[in-house]
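Annotators were shown the component list below and the corresponding predicted structure, then asked to write short factual statements about the assembly.
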Amino acid sequence: MKYSNRLFLLFGIALWTGSVQAQSNGSLQSAVSLDLLGQFGEPFESQGGKVEPREAEIILFAPVDSLWDGFLNLAAHQEQGQAYFEIHEAYLSSSRWLPHSQVRIGQYFLQVGRLNQFHRHDWPFISAPMVQRSFFDNEGANDSGVEWSFLFPTDHYLNLTIGITSGWRFGHSHSLGEKPNVPTTYARLSSYSDLWSNGGTQYGLNTLIREDASGNQTTLLGADLTAKWRSGRTLDWLIQGEIWAKSFSTPSSSEWSLGSYLFTQYGVSQQVHLGLRLESLGNLSLKDAFGTPLANTEYAIVPTLTYKYSEFSTFRAAYSMVFERDPGEKFQPRQFLELQSTFIIGAHPAHDF
Amino acid sequence: MILNLIPVKRALFLSLSLWLGSITLHPYVSKAAVRAVGSTPDIAWLMKEVGGAEIEVQSLLKGTEDPHYADAVPDFIRKVAHADIVCAVGLELEVGWLPRVLSRSGNSKIQSGGLGFCEVGVGVKTLERPTGNIDRSMGDVHPLGNPHFWLSPVSMKEAAVVVADKLSKIDPAHSQHYQANLRKLHSHLDQLVHDSKRVLAPILKKNPASKVLEYHREFTYLFQLYGIPTIGSIEEKPGVPPSAGRLLQVARQAQSSDVKLIIGTDFTPLKPLEKVSEVSGIPIWTTPISLQPSKGIVDYLNFHRTLVKGLADRLASN
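Structure shown to annotators:
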């Protein structure tokens, strides 16, 4: 389908949902989000030097019946100069089926780690950290399957999410992928504690095991932490970080990689936020011919300025300083600037913690 | 000696079972018939007054937050997961976070539209209900009217009716008890209004032209109930921080309109208030607008009396 036809289809669906919403007195909720991105310098993606839509999403959700809620997320995005229109998420969800449980069935972003749980336009920074890009994808791990979240009936918040997905695809893909030998399985155990002065922190332990069609096995182990301090309308402080270890084994070899990021953001006011992201990614198993470990860890520093005019529109600028290197060699720094504008129209966006 | 008689593995298994059993059953061990959650401390207080000994109430917010801008904090999800009834202010005040809290709780009883969910705002005669086409170019407008009704005891009476009806439905065995508590609460709130009017009336009579200015329309119901003249809010559009031009304009308007007091909440951004005060010379007063159990503000009747007295004192001295 031509891009113009796809956009026409997208536009048609948007109009249709608007009219359905009006007719059904709001039981079908819809939202449209647009993410405009400009990259200048030497960015990772090949669309540098211009500002254009990175992604447009149409999100529809409503109760299907007395048990299920339906959720559909249609996305159009640019990739390597090509335009794609696809279904990002399409699933049934229920909080009314099993006690203390939320169940999702269908295609969705896997609830492991922190960033995977949010659409990219809801992140507190513009682009994915190196560890996310390398271990998951530019946006997140997406697949079809079943996911069950269980909230332990305890005095302290303790939530266990487990999921099993087909494993045909992992991360962003425009093809169906290949049938793996075993499905992908994942789990996340998370908790929450209040902190001083209107603060709180959520922390989780995560694991994901996957085997592709060729028998290559990936095991991911990770921990994430998010802490927020809010006063009135201002998010005073946000601290968000993840650390992931990845084991990748082929029938003949295996290696471990380690990556992490830490993002700290200070709220100058209700609308203006200053953030700084520090990140690293390295292969722990690289050795030279004599068996000596080869230094290969790469780093990045990303100061970010955010201006949120309202809950519905955000402007962001980030300056990335990336310290790359070939194994055992010196760092080769490269820098680039990113400008982003996102907005959402339609249903009120959720204030997730 | 006796420890040696119990095999270690069995002892460990027993301990683990007891621990798991205790954490699993703990939330269900409740003397009250109904486990209730209010979205704010004020709504939780209302529920406790109506429910009496038959209910056990928790609040999600602490009263120090702006209820528009709260997050779906995981601890809220835990509280709601064990509840038989959840009552919110409604009128879209908690639209950003409460639906997410409910859906993540895995509690079928308190989902929106369920028997255990209530929005007390549906029973309140709201003010500033917009008409015509409403969209976000008008700011964060609430289509069903201003949701900050809880500073008016009259509106709280209306909200209490919704709570009593809901409690009677989910716990019909104690319906008469709830209705009796409702009547008692109505009488206390009537007395509160009567007393408050006696405090404010002489001051308003002495300075009939004196007006007040608020930052966001959080005090509108209070002003309307006691006949306190106001020139509106510093915000031009609800939820949108005022521009420098707007601050200047509203400061001049306040100066020429005999405004005696600029009023904000304890979470209102101070800079805009200070700017208007600096230009106009009018003093600022910030006050809590919700019960704050962590600071010992736990009783709505006392809280309201303190609020009214604070307002009266400042109007009298300016």
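Statements collected:
1. Chain B has two domains: 34-123+139-186, 199-317.
2. Chain B has a mean pLDDT of 91.
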